[in-house]
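Take just one protein record:
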Amino acid sequence: MCRLIRRPFGRAVAYGSYESGLRELVHLLKYNGVRPAATVLGGMLAEALTALEPAFERLTFEQAPILVIPVPLYKAKRRQRGFNQAELIARAALKFRPLGEPLQLVSSILLRTRDTASQIGLSSHQRRANLRGAFTVERAAEVTGREVILVDDVYTTGATATECAQVLRRAGAAKVWIATVARTMKLASNDAQFRPGMDIDEDAAEAAGEEREELLAKAAES
């Protein structure tokens, strides 16, 4: 039976594929706490954001800026890590963008209300169920009618991005885009040419992510 799911976000863009040097940079920041890596990753994200520039340019001076919202960590995980990598990358990225660009970083509106189990080995349906209800918008009035760029470090299957975008749209966001530094290697390898800021094919990403997670799960069991 065909699945007809309307995506709650408009476009998803990424700088590069999640492999080799880019993957090492993400790991240095995320798992080793090497914060200077966020500056390098921020520069990459800033380049990916060029694909969304038409949206920036059509805003008039009187209109509210586009909100840049990092995907949040659960409070316990943030305390353990000492930072939210998505927030550090987003903050660094805005420093690389042109002065006066209508972008406003807001890190306290979207919250993660509970910890979630690992997504490895879960089906597409199980991933969505795992994340359902894990996010909330604390101050909906600040989101209502606003356009949002949701930022994360890596786009794998799109389950997290989709859940966050749905929560933001329900809170009143007019439009949501997704911007990440990396996307899964499997998906990127299917492209003849990959350019910074290139759109992500969300359906292909989900299928590729499912295959990757199944392989990881089998490897873990062996």
About this structure: Strands lie at 12-18, 66-70, 103-105, 110-112, 135-137, 147-155, 175-184, 198-199. The first strand starts at residue 12 and ends at 18. The chain has nine helices and eight strands. The chain has one domain: 17-221.
